[in-house]
Specification:
The complex is a heterodimer of chains A (about 600) and B (about 280). With about 600 residues, chain A is an alpha+beta fold. Chain A contains 16 helices and 18 strands. Chain A has three domains: about 300 residues, 3-Layer(bba) Sandwich (FAD/NAD(P)-binding domain); about 140 residues, Alpha-Beta Complex (Flavocytochrome C3, Chain A, domain 1); about 120 residues, Fumarate reductase/succinate dehydrogenase flavoprotein-like, C-terminal domain (Methane Monooxygenase Hydroxylase, Chain G, domain 1). In chain A, a hairpin with a 7-residue loop joins strand 17 and strand 18. By secondary structure, chain B is of the alpha+beta class. Chain B has two domains: about 100 residues, Beta-grasp domain (Ubiquitin-like (UB roll)); about 160 residues, Alpha-helical ferredoxin (Fumarate Reductase Iron-sulfur Protein, Chain B, domain 2, Orthogonal Bundle), CATH 1.10.1060.10. Classes of the chains: A alpha+beta (about 600), B alpha+beta (about 280).
């Protein structure tokens, strides 16, 4: 039988070729199965490349007291205990092996004096824990995986966008997409699929994300019958660039603070001392003297239990909200941020050596020499803790054969991710998802791809070409980013969120009438229409979950419900899914957190 | 404010095309990629341009601005004289797909042909030990963001179209990275000369000039590699040793074989570190 469209068949297909997707595909290959890796961009350009500060793993090279139990505890505490405990445990236990494996594949991390992998301090990590390469750790990771991966027999489909997963709602059978170059359709048949598509940052006006981060994996899985979870938890990274407008939101690594940088308001005050969260009070330095002493000792690997950490390195949600409050109180910098000072803290030579990309970035894009002047920084939409709801052991969603790993999956980070835990997340769960997808493919026959499904997907993709008049997709996207920033941003309340939901619904209506000019050949406007459908789904899930959670926790801050609620909200995750039935509306449901077993509770209560 | 600039963008595909002028409004800090995006949003929604990070990290938005290979996202509009149109064309050394997008797939094919990193075994206690000063040169090569601007400007590829004879500057520094990596055990010098054509490079240093990461491609990568290849092939003592096959070389190959049966497609073998041992204890 001849196929209507170009068709490829693999045991497993992996969608997304950042750290998680590459690691998953490497695992499937290593298990001797055929794997196709499908990505929207060229290989090696995924957003992983932007990760700067490092990869968190309790190697214990700088501080020998570090081990998985401390890392696990830090992760749970950073996530305000809303994490799926088993994922946080697997992550903390396996991260060191994944880092060593990268080294085995050629990654060259910065070294300690005795020649081992060096580790640096980061927010919320009790000990220096982040293996790093200057401030370009993500590049090192993706290039290492890419160079290792292309020799393992995986087939890479570059610049290919998936628009629909195929299947019957309970099982997946493949995926449907188009080649960006010529717009021709392509069908993938597979026994299992791993989603590894990354984040949703492009839903917000001020964000640190690349064009690809449009919630594709979350939306595709949602449409295919999977559930999303924790979608209210959006991490606003405290330090994005604020000036000039061209680079507003571009990330400044937390490594700047890890290397000694401090936050100051317009009066020169180190304001973070006023925002020490009670949860962290016992381990945070209350004075500048103690904070500076800690830094000095810690960089040398000489931690002292009587000297506590600087509040500049509190977890990201706390620092982002502190900056937001300072600016709101009129103590901000000229362009609506605060100052981040490394110039007076480290020598010019140190700064250029430890933070070369930051030096370069500010010099070329911001006309600021960070070895001489402070940077202006403010919060930027950076990372979503929520995503596809998966089983903690296997990374499988409730749709059989559909797995997810990395940022597009939920559960590992709870309500707030610690810096450095994303790169390790990609490797640990990329590998697990790859392994379990391969096992699934070994144990199950392929599900038949129905012609009708393909026809529907093709028709949907081409619809915007059929109109003589209609909306400009770029204008609709711009509108969405502004509404999400305004109503579902860093500080939320019931009224704004209700408005936010209305705005998203309005834009969903508008998006039914998008129009594309030109032909299917590398047509940016057309590509935007498909990304928009996905962004509108995840935006709705974010707004609805945020409206439902009546407390402030991690990446979800409510002006009308300050503080964490211990009695109810501490015990539930919010799940969003498509309602069964004709209207297919989105529903939000509370589900109880899994019970933490006693031996794990003990680990959480340990000291050290 | 309110200042304007004209972008003269090549619109076309493999069958030909033409320049089109677009007027954009300038704002502070604006880079050429911002201007191209404004054109896309307002006048030409089907304009093709690659980009990802918009921070000079991913190397996607390579093109030629007034004939010079550059990253669109790292080039400020203020770098150009007001009143003069800014001309943007796709990279010349690669076949055009559409507008500013070129077919760079050849680079990914070349990458596959280079035998991968092949590490020596770990120390007995499970660590690899390297001094920072010994890896700094290699780390410089590993800064490469694969924008392929160096490939675009390389005379061997751009003017003489000998891409099948020479891997180009990007892969020359990848080979240098492997050769100088303290853990790598595979000798690729014969391939560097014969298969990968390093001899064709005549060291005009154009690649170094366009590198947005400021990697000293020629001085630190290509020239030392040429010397190492020359040593191997033209030093009479080495030539003899190579013919006879030294004990050291045999030992080197034996240890490489220990690390894994082949250098491709194998899971690494290494000591389980503390964390996995701890895991077994906890469960």
């Amino acid at each position: 039988m001849t196929e209507k469209f170009e068709t490829h068949e693999h045991d497993v297909i992996v969608i997304g070729a950042g750290g998680a997707g590459l690691r998953a595909a490497i695992e499937v290959s290593a298990m001797g199965l055929s794997v196709g890796l499908v990505c929207k961009s060229l290989l090696g350009k995924a957003h992983t490349v932007m990760a700067e500060g490092g990869i968190a793993a309790a190697l214990g090279n700088v501080e020998s007291k570090d081990n998985w139990r401390v890392h696990f505890r830090d992760t749970m505490k950073g996530g305000r205990y809303l994490n799926q405990w088993r994922m946080a445990q697997l992550h903390a236990m396996e991260a060191p092996d994944r880092v060593n494996e990268l080294e085995q594949w050629g990654a060259l991390f910065d070294r300690t004096a005795d020649g081992r992998i060096l580790q640096r301090n980061f927010g919320g990590h009790k000990y220096p824990r982040l293996a790093h390469v200057g401030d370009r750790t993500g590049l090192e990771m993706i290039r290492t995986l890419q160079q290792h991966g292309v020799h393992t027999g995986m087939k890479v489909y570059m610049e290919c966008t998936i628009t629909r997963l195929l299947g019957d709602g309970d099982k997946v059978s493949g995926a449907f997409g188009y080649w960006r170059e010529n717009g021709r359709f392509v069908v993938f048949r597979a026994k299992a699929i791993v989603m590894a598509t990354g984040g949703v940052g492009r839903c917000f006006k001020i964000n640190s994300n690349s064009w690809e981060c449009t919630g594709d994996g979350q939306a595709l899985a949602y449409l295919a019958g999977a559930e999303l979870m924790d979608m209210e938890f959006m991490q606003f990274h405290p330090t994005g660039m604020v000036w000039p407008p061209s680079v507003r939101g571009t990330l400044i690594t937390e490594g700047v603070r890890g290397e000694g940088g401090t936050l100051r308001n317009k009066d020169g005050k180190r304001f973070m001392f006023d925002y020490i969260h009670p949860l962290y009070a016992s381990e945070t330095a209350p004075t500048e003297e103690e904070a500076d002493k800690w830094l000095k000792l810690s960089v040398l690997g000489k931690g002292d239990k009587d000297v506590r950490r600087t509040p500049d390195l509190l977890p990201r949600d706390i620092v982002a909200r502190a900056i937001h409050s300072e600016v709101k109180a009129g103590r901000g910098s000229p362009h609506g941020g605060v100052f981040l000072d490394i110039a007076t803290r480290r020598s010019a030579e140190d700064i250029k050596r430890k933070l070369p990309a930051m030096y370069h970035q500010f010099k070329e894009l911001g006309d600021v020499d960070i070895t001489r002047e402070p940077m202006e920084v403010g919060p930027t939409a950076h990372y979503i803790m929520g995503g596809i709801r998966v089983d903690s052991e296997t990374q499988e969603s409730r749709v059989k054969g559909l797995f997810a790993a990395g940022e597009c999956a939920a559960g590992m980070h709870g309500s707030n991710r610690l810096g450095g835990n994303s790169l390790s997340d990609l490797l640990v769960f990329g590998r697990i998802a790859g392994r379990c997808a391969a096992e699934h493919a070994k144990a199950n026959a392929a599900v038949k791809v129905e012609d009708e499904e393909i026809d529907i997907a093709a028709k949907e993709a081409l619809e915007p070409f059929s109109r003589d008049r209609g909306e400009n997709p770029f204008a609709v996207h711009e509108d969405l980013m502004n509404q999400m920033q305004k109503y579902v941003g860093i500080m939320r309340n019931a009224e704004d969120l209700a408005q936010g939901i209305k705005e998203v619904e309005r834009l969903q209506e508008t998006a039914r009438n998008l129009r594309v000019e030109g032909n299917r050949h590398f047509n940016a406007g057309w590509h935007e229409t498909i990304d928009l459908r996905n962004m509108l789904i995840v935006s709705e899930a974010m707004a609805r979950s945020a409206a439902a959670r009546k407390e402030s926790r991690g990446g979800h801050a409510r002006e009308d419900f300050e503080g964490m609620d211990k009695t109810h909200w501490a015990k539930v995750n919010l799940v969003t899914r498509k309602k069964k039935g004709a209207d297919e509306e989105m529903e939000v449901e509370e589900v109880p957190l899994p019970e933490v077993p006693p031996e794990i509770k003990k680990v959480l209560e340990e000291e050290g | 404010m309110g200042d304007k600039a004209t972008l003269r963008i090549y619109r076309g595909d493999k069958d030909g095309g033409e320049f089109k002028d677009y007027e954009v409004e300038l704002y502070p800090g604006m880079v050429v990629l911002d201007a191209v995006h404004d054109v896309q949003a307002r006048y030409a929604p089907d304009l093709a341009v690659r980009w990802n990070c918009k921070a000079g990290r991913c190397g996607s938005c390579s093109a030629e601005i007034n004939g010079k290979p550059k990253l669109l996202c790292m080039t400020r509009m203020t770098a150009y004289a007001p009143g003069e149109p800014i001309t943007i064309t796709p990279m010349k050394a690669f076949p055009i797909m559409k507008d500013l997008v070129t077919d760079v797939s050849h680079n990914f094919e070349v990458a596959k042909k280079i035998p991968p990193f092949t590490p020596k075994p770990r120390d007995a206690d499970g660590f690899y030990r390297m001094q920072q000063m010994d890896i700094e040169r290699v780390q410089e090569f590993r800064k490469c963001i694969e924008c392929f601007l160096c490939q675009d400007v390389c005379h061997v590829i751009r003017d003489h179209d000998r891409r099948t004879d020479f891997v180009g500057p990007r892969f020359s520094i990848h080979l240098a990275n492997l050769d100088m990596h303290p853990l790598d055990t595979l000798d690729r010098r014969d391939m560097v000369k014969e298969q990968f054509g390093l001899g064709l490079c005549n060291i005009t240093k154009c690649c170094t000039e366009v590198c947005p990461e400021h990697i000293h491609i020629t001085d630190n990568g290509i020239i030392p590699m040429k010397e190492r290849v020359a040593d191997e092939h033209f030093d009479p003592v080495r030539w003899l040793l190579r013919k006879v096959g030294t004990l050291e070389e045999r030992r080197r190959k034996a240890t490489a074989a220990d690390a894994g049966p082949e250098h491709v497609a194998r899971q690494p073998k290494f000591e389980e570190t503390g964390a996995l041992k701890a895991r077994t204890k906890a469960e």
